Amino acid sequence: MSEKTGTWIEWIVPFVFVLAAGWFVWHLPAFILDFLPSSNESLYAQTSAIHLKKDVTPNMPGLFGGFADPIDWLSLIAMPVLAIIGMRTFSVAHMEFQDWRGRDRFAIFIGRVTMMLILAMTGVMLYEVFLRYAIEAPTLWANELTLWIGGFVFLSSGLYAMQQRSHIRIFLLYDVVPRWMQRVFDIIWTFLICVFAVGLVFGSYNQVFAVKFYRWETFGTAFDPPIPSTIQPFVLIMIVLIALQAVANLFSDWNAEPVIHTAADDIDEDELEAIKRAVGDEGVGDLDVTRGSIQKTHPKGDD
Q: What is the value of pTM for the model shown?
């Protein structure tokens, strides 16, 4: 693992993964029709109509005589391949959690994918602003696409936050007890996360997959993206992954030295150094904190 960060492959692989995943998710009805066809003729016809309406390559014949064409299959195969490459080529930045293990590779890669999603969401928003206010030709899809990507960002970042130990924690009692008691606390909260995950999946599985996903419920707008049929299943998938990551954290941190948390933990050292460079070591420099020049003060008595 190289210590150098920001190499081209760390940007390209997550970006291509996002493209492959986006294509696959958009054409998921083809795979539903091929592998999970409904015995209900009305529902089958509805899913087929949605696929034919949304298919980006409608004239391309399906592979193996089905609905999914070669590009759909390529996107499906590309996702695990790109994930494996991404998990083997990333570099951990200095501001990230340093004591990671091999079992954390997937969560870190998902963090990189989430960063690409944020860039994509920002690009869509800027594109819509330009079209709306510069040439007065707003799109019908930018707002819904932003909501859709934002949902994936919100959920995916939870897994990355769990791996980075950056989720909200209250240490008032945790820091004052001995290490063996801290381990007991770790077991309890990990157990509670797993119970919550099991309860959420058990209670929502039928509603989410049988109603939302299987029927490929859409948003009901002009663009009509499948937000309900994709985001809700992704909620269950991510809560399971977060619970698994919590268990992985428990094993990784079991023999770790106790850490005493103070208010200094909330200080961003990089930002502090930037402020020092701006204002100078003694609080006065050539630039102020807004990076603007500091005006020279006039001698006392001058107008």
A: 0.85
